Amino acid sequence: GKERPEIDQWILSSLHTLTRTVTEYMNDFEPTQAGRAIEDFVDEHLSNWYVRLCRRRFWKGEYEQDKICAYQTLFECLETVARLMAPIAPFFSECIFQNLNTIAQRHTEASVHHTLFPTANESLIDTSLEERMQLAQDISSLVLSLRKKVNIKVRQPLQKVLIPVMSEKIKTQVSLVEELIKTEVNVKEVEYLESSNSFIRKKIRPNFVALGKKLGAKMKAVAAVIGELSQEDIARLEKEGSISLLIDKEPIILQLQEVEISGEDIPGWMVANKDALTVALDVTVTPGLVSEGNARELVNRIQKIRKDNGYELTDRIVVKLSGNTELKETIAQFNSYICAEILADQLELVPEITGGAEVEVNDIPITVIVTKKA
Known about the structure:
By secondary structure, the chain is α+β, with helices and mostly antiparallel strands. β9 (317-323), α13 (328-342) and β10 (344-349) form a beta-alpha-beta unit. α1 (6-27) runs antiparallel to α2, α1 packs parallel to α4 (65-85) and α2 (31-53) runs antiparallel to α4. The protein has a 4-stranded mixed beta sheet. A 4-stranded mixed beta sheet has the order 10-9-12-11, with helices on one face. The chain starts with 5 loop residues before the first helix and ends with a strand. The chain has helices at residues 6-27, 31-53, 55-59, 65-85, 90-104, 127-150, 168-176, 178-185, 208-215, 219-227, 231-240, 287-308, 328-342, and strands spanning 158-165, 187-194, 202-206, 242-247, 250-255, 259-263, 269-274, 277-282, 317-323, 344-349, 357-361, 364-372.
């Protein structure tokens, strides 16, 4: 358990929480809910987060401690999921189980349907770890959606993301996964703002569908009062989940889900929010950031050429480039980074090349020759 890397502890914690949830649903004769919980775990946690973030661990280096942990953790997730879904997906679960068990032989049973249903190990459940990983996932997806909106690809580094935090607890939680967020969304720094900050201003409007039923004729008066709420009121509503309004001398309790709160965009920044979470992304791309973005694109192009040439992952290479000198800065500044990523002993810009591959780096055409080191 505890000697594994934190991301392994997290996915195993989620797995045991899932086991507990599925067991409760099954006991209540709710197979649909159980199936949805399994689907959510496999999509959101196992596939989109765990496997993707651990890709390097799966293929890099010798079969040693870290790699063994990654494989064993994934194995445990797949095998447990197969057993959890056996009652509702009998054939598919059998297929997974046989594939895993034929090799591992952890079970003497002939079929997944002969094994015992998994039981949750409460000692492996770490709710605090699950909470902060959820924050990392939510913050990352908000930042990525902003990048998409302004059409800045993920390989282009950006300077900073601002996150207003409601409490010290949330701030601590986010700072524990800060490095992960920065890598995931390719942003250099995360800065925290008090939730009462004046930098990000919130707009609030009534959710007419939710409120109409409850208020009827008073709707108009309430909508007017909601429009007048101050930034402090909005912050309090977000923090406490409800706020009391005085309408015609009568108190009315307004719930968070009865309004829609959004961030106002600030020049050079983009703002997005989901529930109580807000992020502001600095979308200014400075020349320095452009240069670094070019370096990342170049790495990507050369990796593809390596692959097309059929080189092994461990082969060392030599790279020559020619063409547009717009990349001169990038190559000078990021030479060692690029070489380390592509396993090159040498990377140089030369005036002339014949017979190289034509590629584009952020719309800059260049010619590249990649040769294997003898």
